[in-house]
Amino acid sequence: MNSIRIAHTEAFHVALIVALLVAFSISDVSSTTSNVTCNNPVSLKQCGTIVVTANAGSSAGIGSIVYPTAFATVPIVHAFTIPSVNQLSFSFQFLDTVTIVSPNTGTITWAAMPAAETEFLGLAINRISINLRQVSTVQIFADVQSAGATGSILKLQYFNTTSTTWIDLCGASTDTPNVAIDVVGSNIGSVCGPVASLKSASGPNITIRIAGKNGNGIASPQFGNIGIIVSFQMSVTPYATLFAVSPIGFTVIIQFGIILSVNTTITVQWDAEL
């Protein structure tokens, strides 16, 4: 019995010693880890900034970092941009063209175009469904092969489930957007913004038509393609991409998302840690 008690006692002591050693080891590791800060010690963590320049005509800039002190192994690296207020986002515009009328061959003639506002050719066959959510501006274009009466125009109008009449696309009774058709050529009308409710994030699907006015009942203009040009405004935020990460340094690329018109510099904050 005494030998059994002694064995149990020794086993308990051994277990207690092991537990204490583990506890002290964990404490030491936690203490060491919590004391690591930027560049203290440099063997475990280094931090800094770099200014990256992107040249005019490009969409990205590139910079390289060499650590003041090389690491023993490849560290984990983080990098992020520190933009100025003007660099928080970069905006750009892109255009899309939707053809509404396109003759199969030759041209389309609007015989004796009337003075009163009238749907194109007096027919409903050229209406299209469209959604203008997030659209910034619209224009109408017309390939005029034979001119109409002086002052004659084509314009765009819309209709949806809440409309009781056709409404000018950029505002009721504004005749906008419109394009002059009293001169031969590939004519593009002035820019205007669609009705606010149409270009909102929840804008409805609508039907649009081409309407004409200010004819004289005699002139018969002829057309090639007629359609709408829409523009969208987009914004992007510069972001960093890392590559060639090694124990002695790394390379960072800053993507701006647009073609820059001028040389642009941006600050990048980085840290590297084992």
- Cα-based radius of gyration, to the nearest Å: 35 Å
The CATH architecture of the largest domain can be given as: Sandwich
Number of domains: 3
The count of helical stretches stands at 2
CATH hierarchy class name of the largest domain: Mainly Beta
- Share in β-strands: 35-45%
Termini Cα gap: 54 Å
Low-confidence stretches: 1-9, 14-33
The CATH topology of the largest domain turns out to be: Jelly Rolls
Residues in helices, as a percent range: 10-25%
Question: Per the principal axes of the C-alpha atoms, what is the gross shape?
Answer: elongated
Number of distinct beta strands? 17
Largest sheet descriptor: 6 strands, antiparallel
Content-based structural category = mainly beta
The H-and-E topology, N to C, reads as: HEEEEEEEEEEEEHEEEEE
Question: What's the rounded overall pLDDT mean?
Answer: 86
Walk me through this protein's architecture.
This protein is mainly β and 274 residues long. The protein folds into three domains: 1-35; 38-89 and 237-273, Immunoglobulin-like, CATH 2.60.40; 92-234, Jelly Rolls. It has helices spanning 2-34, 196-199; strands at residues 45-54, 60-66, 76-82, 90-101, 108-109, 118-119, 128-131, 135-146, 153-159, 167-168, 178-180, 185-188, 205-213, 222-236, 239-246, 249-255, 264-273. The strands form four sheets. Strands 6, 7, 9, 10, 11 and 13 form a six-stranded antiparallel β-sheet that branches. Strands 4, 5, 8, 12 and 14 form a five-stranded antiparallel β-sheet that branches. Strand 9 (153-159) and strand 10 (167-168) form a beta hairpin. The longest helix is centred in the first third of the chain and has 33 residues, at 2-34. It is elongated, with a radius of gyration of 35 Å. The two termini are 54 Å apart.
